[in-house]
Amino acid sequence: MSGPPGGTGSPTEWLERALLLPESERSVFVENAPETIRGELDDALSTYIQASAYLDRLARDLHLPSMTPVTAPRPHLVGSELAHFRILDHIGDGGMGAVYRAEDTRLGRTVALKLLTGIDAPGRERFLREAQSASALDHPNVCTIYEIGEEGGHAWISMACYEGTTLRGLIDRGPLDVDSALDIAEQAARGLGAAHAKGIVHRDIKPENLMVLPDGRVVILDFGLAKGAAHATMTQVGTVMGTAAYMSPEQASGHRVDHRTDIWSLGSILYEMLAGERPFPGAYPQAILYGIMNTDPEPLSGRRAGLPLQLVDIVDCTLQKEPANRFSSLNDMVDAIAAVRSRAAARSEVRGRVTAESVGVTAESVGVAAEPVGAPPSGADETGVLHLLCVDDEPELELLMQQRFRRKIRAGEWKFIFALDGQDALNKLEAHPETGVILTDLNMPRMDGLTLLSRLAALDRPLRTVVVSAYGDLEKIRTAMNRGAFDFVTKPIDFKDLETTIEKAAADLDAYRRALRGQNQAVSIHQEMDVARRIQDATLPVSFPDGTFGFSSPASEINSTFYDAFDAGAGRTALILGEVRGRSVTSTLLLTMGQTFLKGLLQQGVELSRAVSMLNHMLFADDLPSVSLQLVAVIVDSASGAVSYLSAGHQDPWVVRALGDVDTLDGSGPPIWEDTASSWSVQAATLGPGDALVLPSAGCVRATDRAGQAFSVERLAATLRDTTDLRPTAIIRSALRAIGEFADGAPQREDLTLVAMQREA
Questions:
Q1: How far is CA 343 from CA 305, 308, 318, 336, 738, in A?
Q2: Cβ burial, residue 327 (10 Å; 0-12/13-18/19+)
Q3: 439 closest CA partner among 389, 474, 498
Q4: Is residue 561 a contact partner of residue 697, using CB atoms and an 8 Å limit?
């Protein structure tokens, strides 16, 4: 057998090919490997032999289901009685025991009954020690132990029986949103921290051992490998305990472990929740163990763009090979997670805006009405509750929704009902006439999402429907938009994006309901403009990468503008600014769809001109309203300062040099959504240390004074040239102040939007 194609590949890839060979052929295979990796490959095979011995010993001595295939038939206990328990059904297998759902006939409650059959005395002692370890814990994030006993040759533990899903079930759906992943990790860390405080190390933390309940609570299961300090000698030296993919290096090598092995395992889980893949993949346990002991995982920032740097640092700290370099305790990890969540919440509250005092622009100055104090949430019924119907044939989505939006549910702001397909949804709508917003998948049995949309259009009731489907369904998504869908969110679900989209839908529904209450046509048009403003505001970024900022002051007449700044991966930052000339909710929604699509492509590493061309083709359709979209997009390499940019009929960006010069980046190209054959070329520039990049909207140069004179490109250039503080917030504040002084209170017809970035000096 040859090695990886072209004679390249990592030692792990060569190792996995070597494992497919008979032992007699492996030495020749190693000799034929490239000289640069031959020594490492030989070491890897040695690790494989060592790990195989560990696993064989484990299979021989302990029979752990999590590590070895189950070859012996499970005892037929379902339907039988054991002590005062009636065994109802088999739930699964945990460390050192099978778990059954059972009825406690004494107390009349359902329990999880874990029992062990056919194991020697040391194994039985270990099994009962699990119960003693866990029963000493009284913590909301640790499973509750009711009883411990032996009956008819069976040692058993009676535990609380939880309804929910394991974290494995959630991860298998795709990466989790950041807040959900941090919430789960923080709860698990608190539960494990309580165990560590009593001298108990779990040693088998994995997604299968974390149960997520419908109310969002996380419960740690299966202390089958728990080890108290007083019993440290019970485990044979060199015995590998736990599941390979989540073992710490010291655990994988059979060395003595302490509480920091749980920190490693929890870090591996957090990595997987965010990236959607384990940090140390492999086709064989031996290859996984080799990676854990000898290689570094792919950086998390390379697996998922846009993560807070502090979060990446947390994961990196947990996955240090040397235990002394990890968090010293799970309390420290909890504090670090809480700091990231607190910062994210604060930035979300700001929602990308600067204060009126800092820019000299107020809502009143541009004619935007303030939200009435004490008004109920948009889209809510008379009681202040927004009723949502979620339609998806994956039942685990119900748990995800309840877990992610638990605060709104508990506060009585949102109320969910769930349906498994389109027909079920129609039945639920008939039973729940208060429903206002519908979230629906497209691919479902019996009645799919497109058919459901057609049926909804025939109903004489105000509803707003959001499609929740995969990127691969873009054609269906476009069809869904034509059939009346309000907006869409792609899978895997970004729950912050989904929350924003629901709020947009609720705002639109709210405006429509008010129009139905007898408002005349003129008021209805005004409400449509108000909804468009709400949608425009909701699309603004909730946070910015370091060294970037953006701000938009909406005009009294809608000239829909969007902007964003985000991490594009590989040390690059992307800035986009777009404008659409349509003045309606429909045009604003189509703009939002384009923004979401373009951002997703750039974050996936699609080349700039190709991404814009794909956006053009996606938006272009004969049956869509003719709307011209102007756009400028820039990608900056943070290390080198290399700038790639293109303009699709938009105002060109500017570079303000640290030495005082101002350069225009000319990248003119046709607007998007005019011709399917349009193409765009990417231009190049360089951002020097301390230089600033500024993206202004057309409204910034076309702003008028009371005499109707335009602010002009020349005045904006002079303003930027005279600005000495090139920090993004300062340069935007300076430009807006100059425009405001020039306009002298004159009403503006176009948004004043700027996005800026400064390269580190």
A1: 18, 10, 21, 11, 32
A2: buried
A3: 389
A4: yes
Among 177, 204, 494, 508, the active-site one is 204
Amino acid at 12: T
685-724 per-position pLDDT tens digit: 999 999 999 999 988 999 999 888 999 999 999 999 999 8
**Closest C-alpha to 679, from 694, 689, 693, 668:** 668
Closest to 663 in 3D by CA, of 683, 681, 687: 687
End-to-end CA distance of the chain: 53
Q: Which residue has the higher pLDDT, 406 or 234?
A: 406
Q: Tokens for 26?
A: 């492996």
For residue 96, which of 118, 71, 72 has the smallest C-alpha distance?
A: 118
> What's the CA gap between 216 and 312, in Å, rounded?
24
Q: Could you tell me which of 62, 121, 110 has the C-alpha nearest to residue 86?
A: 110
Q: Residue 440 in contact with residue 467, Cβ under 8 Å?
A: yes
Q: State the Cα–Cα distance between residues 709 and 123, nearest whole angstrom.
A: 88
Residue 658 makes CB contacts below 8 A (sequence gap 6+) with 688, 689, 690, 691, 726, 761
Q: Catalytic: 622? A: no
Q: Strand 437-440 to strand 464-470: parallel, antiparallel, or no bridges (unpaired)?
A: parallel
Task: Work out the average pLDDT over 42-61.
Answer: 57
Coil/strand/helix, residue 428 = helix
In the structure encoding, which two tokens stand for residue 407, read together? 């605060």
Contact, 421 vs 444, CB < 8 A?
yes
Buried b (16+ CB within 10 A) or exposed e, 74-86: eeebeeeebbebe
Distance, CA of 747 to CA of 731 (rounded, Å): 23
Torsion of CA 324, 327, 329, 330, to 10 degrees: -150
β pairing state of 386-391 and 414-419: parallel
- Which residues are within 8 A (CB) of 87 and not within 5 positions of it... i.e. 6 or more apart? 77, 78, 79, 80, 81, 100, 101, 102, 113
The mean-pLDDT minimum among 266-270, 459-463, 737-741 falls in: 459-463
> What is the spatial distance between Cα 419 and Cα 607, in angstroms, rounded to a whole number?
40
Q: pLDDT over 70 for what percent of the chain? A: 74
Tokens at 729, concatenated: 């917030």
- Count of residues making up the chain: 761
**Cβ of 283: how many Cβ atoms within 10 Å?**
13
Calpha distance 546→557 (Å, rounded):
32
CA proximity to 545, closest of 570, 569, 573, 571: 573
Where residue 626 falls (left for φ over 0; alpha for ψ -120 to 50; beta otherwise) is beta
3 state DSSP class of 50: helix
Sign of CA dihedral 187, 191, 194, 199: negative
The H-assigned helical ranges of 351-494 are 356-359, 396-404, 406-410, 422-431, 449-457, 474-482
Average pLDDT over residues 23-35: 77
Number of C-alpha atoms within 13 angstroms, CB side, residue 427? 8
Cα 342 off chain centre by: 17
Instruction: Count how many Cα atoms sit within 13 Å of the Cα of residue 76 in the half-sphere of its side chain.
Output: 0
**What does the pLDDT look like over 502-519, one tens digit per residue?**
998 888 788 777 655 544
Q: Is 136 helix (H, G, I), strand (E, B) or coil?
A: coil
Mean pLDDT of 558-573: 82
For the whole prediction, is pTM greater than 0.70?
no
Residues 6+ apart with CB under 8 A from 458: none
**Sequence letter at residue 162:** Y
Residue 16, Cβ neighbours under 10 Å: how many? Answer: 19
Q: Is the dihedral of CA 369, 374, 378, 379 positive or negative?
A: negative
Given a contact cutoff of 8 angstroms between Cβ atoms, the answer to whether 179 and 404 are in contact is yes
| Tokens at 192, concatenated | 């494990």
